[in-house]
Amino acid sequence: MSDSHFMQDLAHAVSRMSDQMSVEQMRLYQQYVSKSLEAREAQEAFMTAVEQELGGDTDTTECLQGIRRAMEDSRCRLSGTESVLLACLTKSMEGEEYADTKRLNILLHSYGRKPSNTTKIIDIMEKKSWLEIRSDGLHAHKSFRLTREGHEHAKSLLARLDQADGDGRLAIA
Q1: Is the pTM of this model over 0.85?
Q2: Backbone angles phi and psi of 143, in degrees to 5
Q3: Which residues, at least 6 apart from 99, have a Cβ–Cβ distance to it below 8 Å?
Q4: Which of 19, 72, 102, 139 has its CA 20 to 30 A from that of 133?
Q5: Which of 32, 56, 80 is the last residue of a domain?
């Protein structure tokens, strides 16, 4: 199917869909599309900036692309801890010294991988010495960064995902 034919079919489907939606549903759909577009633009801008700034650092680019592939692949069964770990690695590679649960949740939600309680997973990961946490209080969003051990574990997970994908296995043991 050519791109122009696909785009025409998509335009007709969206037109039919909008005729059947309430005003509130249309607003929610508009928000969904806007946020998806923002995430895609930010991702592409980041990847371009990384390549330019680091002189085409292929290791960083390949790692981020590997994370994105794993997060986008619905056949890849990741636990909540694995999803959070990969998201933490993403934030670290994007240059954020400390990530926070709010922005991490936004990233995970954009891939449909947000676990039910990210904060609890963050606490568990701290106990495993994978994260260093900095908190401003009991009810505040926590700030955290990967420890060296957490970074190594995340890279190991990503390597296993790459190997599993080549073997047709989609779950991490």
Answers
A1: no
A2: -105, 145
A3: 87, 88, 91, 92, 143, 144, 145
A4: 72
A5: 56
